[in-house]
Amino acid sequence: MTANAAQTTPAGSTDELRAVLVLAGTTGGIGAHVRSLAAGLSAHGVDVTVCGPAETDKLFGFSGAGARFHAVEITPTPGPRTDAAAVGELRRAFARASLVHAHGLRAALLSDLALRTARTQEIPLVVTSHSANLATGMERRLLRMMERRVARGADLVLGASSDLVTRARDLGATDARLGPVVAPPLPQAVADREQTRRQLLAEKGRRAAKEAAAKVAAAKEAAAKEAGDRPIVLAIGRLTPQKNFQLLLDAASGWRGGEDHPLLVIAGVGPEEAALKARIKAERLPARLLGYREDVAELLAAADVVVISSRWEARPLVAQEALRAGVPMVATAVGGLPELVGDAAVLVPPGDATALAAAVSSLLADPARRAELAAAGPLQAETWPTEADTVAQVLSVYDELLSER
N or C: which end of the chain has fewer CB within 10 A? Predict the structure, then answer.
């Protein structure tokens, strides 16, 4: 779509709208969000191209969501050769674009560079900010410079949580708004199974609920075999410093006494995997690393409590999935988590292993409180914007920006 064509396109119309969504390598929330957007936008008649590393298409199936996929190797860290190659590929992908929508700092920075060097500033750039700058020292200053450039270069910044919107404005964004990242709902069959599990929990107690769930979930069977009748504490996420799984192991170190102490299971992969595995072995902690898993719904069915120990989060998909499934949750009070969970989870101060361990132990010892949280989770989830709401907001933003060209 040319600038003149955009001016004559009626508001709300997607005729000839060609959106390019850009993301770096991811195995989690950003990829799920981009796939949801790609499917929703395509269903509204938008011509969608997704640009990112080839492995992201294998993981999230953008090509199967109605979008075309353009492989661009956007590496986690800057490099002259890799960045030059990525910028070149992005220029080619942007050649016919009406609008570019980048997700995350690296994708946004390279998209901005590709648009500027191709002298296609007439193409609007939307950036969704998904995470905070948690680096320290020189790296923090460097990332802040990159954040400032992206904030000032974008036509619009959508923050996944309110604190990210405030930060974008502080960095010089001319327009920054809240753009919540929504987790796709559980399939109906899984939701029905979760309802049955909650009923069993109320009627027959935790052991009966676990036995019922084990019949329909392979992950449940594996976890129950190792755990016996011990409670299962579940954490899901990339094994990175942001997720602060070291803090969770600190908490788990106090759970080793007694026959019914919980088993901590952590699903995910990442750079801290070797260090976490070594610590679990050296300290003989009641914990197990599961690696990358696609059966998140079954893992949630197996869990007595879900824990988020992060240093920062916006609207983590695991929190949304857990509350929708009615699984009691303990989380650190950081970023967008308090506004996301409301009173439907137990919040503890960040970095406080004692408080985290105590909150989990208290929940495990209190079936009535767990039942309260199990009922509160789905009710809280009903207050969140839906996938359709998110797609409608993005379409409205696209139309607004294109009408101004």
Answer: C
